[in-house]
Design a protein that fits this description.
Blueprint lengths: L4 H6 L7 E4 L3 E5 L9 E5 L11 H21 L4 E5 L15 E6 L18 H8 L7
Antiparallel strand pairs: 1-2, 2-3, 3-5, 4-5
Bound molecules: adenosine monophosphate (AMP) and zinc ion.
Length: 138
């Protein structure tokens, strides 16, 4: 038996408040009750996170993120969205099935959806030298 909670939601075994669904993705209300309108978008197939998700599925997820975001801003009275994702436990991922959080925003809503970082600890040029990517051969 699959004990992944989002797989069980995707299969209909566990109910959810479904906002949008298509063949390969599902958008539903996050039950955290931490902010009004908190929505999750998932692929129906199980991938742990963006690091192991194939590109076709990732495109489908992001297409749904865009559709739902457009619905929120065009039809529901919101002015913008924050998109959040944690990939791997080190990044704070708690449910190990790929998901993108959508936080709907309104002008003046006073939400603080951007983390307060402590300030960089290393020289930016040193960090850049370590993480820059070479152009792939085409
Ligand atoms: P993360 O910490 O990025 O992995 O986020 C996991 C999210 O899943 C949290 O915001 C939870 O509130 C949400 N969550 C967990 N179980 C459910 C559920 N059964 N239905 C809706 N959202 C859920
Ligand atoms: Zn799963």
């Amino acid at each position: 038996m699959n004990d992944c909670i989002f797989c069980r939601i995707a299969s209909g075994e566990i109910p959810c408040m479904r906002v949008y669904e298509d063949e390969s993705t599902l958008a539903f209300m996050d039950i955290a009750k931490d902010v009004d309108g908190h929505i999750l978008v998932i692929p129906k197939a199980h991938f742990k996170n963006i690091l192991d998700c194939d590109e076709e599925t990732l495109s489908a997820v992001m297409k749904t993120v865009k559709r739902v975001s457009e619905h929120l801003t065009e039809d529901c009275g919101y002015d913008g969205v924050n998109l959040l994702n944690a990939s791997n436990e080190s990044a704070g991922q708690s449910v190990l099935h790929f998901h993108v959080h959508i936080i709907p925003r309104k002008h003046g809503d006073q939400l603080d959806a951007w983390p307060k970082f402590d300030g960089a600890k290393q020289d930016i040029q040193d960090v850049f030298a370590g993480i820059r990517m070479r152009q792939r051969d085409v």
